[in-house]
Amino acid sequence: xxxxxxxxxxxxxxxxTRAVTLDGRTVRLSRKEFQLLALFVAEPDTVHTAAExxxxxxxxxxLPEAGPAVxxxxxxxxxxxxxxxxxxxRRGAGYRLDASALSEAGPADAEGAxxx
Length: 116
Known about the structure:
This protein has about 120 residues and is an alpha+beta fold. Helices cover about 35% and strands about 20% of the residues. Strand 1 and strand 2 (about 10-15) form a beta hairpin.
């Protein structure tokens, strides 16, 4: 695939264009949101700590004050992906992508679903 298209069940990532489709609808993501999602898709069901995400996505040293920035980006990503939730937080541990949610059939009304 020339554009680097990476299907992941209901989700498709196009790294060259930073485009994402979920159940056939386009999801607009910021650069950081896309990078986070790409990492989660590459390593589904793996819990990623905030420190790890800062190191791997922001390419910065994991500082304690970086945690809230990660929380905000993940919250934005969750809102844009909608329901059912794909990203799950584990208090004190980090975040993981639920691979089984990506393989399930999408909701019948996903086309008009409100992300909040």
